[in-house]
Design a protein that fits this description.
4-stranded antiparallel β-sheet, 117 residues, alpha+beta, globular, 22% strand
């Protein structure tokens, strides 16, 4: 496996195609270190929750202190917002809900009607 040149990726501002390469790209663009304990992140600490090419949601979990953070990355401006995530939900559970297609207006009306009775 060839070594990824992170500086070259950032310089060209192009997201690579492979998942591992994307993780390295997001590490270089968003954060290389845990905000809580300062440990260096590796590709194993990063989960790409969503990436549509223009915007990405990235999950970071520190293997040292187990702190979790989510980052929203907007590719066109190269901006990101990283915030702590305190929840008892596991990443796999979150991925399940994100891939469910969301809540529709009919879903909201159904819940409202059920609660109103």
């Amino acid at each position: 496996m060839s070594k990824i040149n992170t500086k070259e990726i950032v310089k060209n501002n192009k997201k690579p195609g492979k998942n591992a390469d994307k993780k390295t790209y997001f590490l270089s663009k968003i954060s290389n270190y845990c905000d809580k304990c300062g440990a260096k992140y590796t590709e194993k600490d990063v989960t790409i929750v969503s990436d549509n090419g223009a915007q990405a949601i990235i999950h970071f979990k520190c293997t040292s202190c187990l702190a979790e953070h989510f980052a929203n990355y907007i590719d066109s401006v190269g901006a990101s917002n990283k915030m702590p995530f305190n929840s008892d939900m596991r990443t796999q559970e979150l991925m399940k809900f994100l891939s469910s297609g969301g809540v529709t207006a009919d879903d909201v009306i159904d819940v409202y009607e059920a609660v109103s009775k």
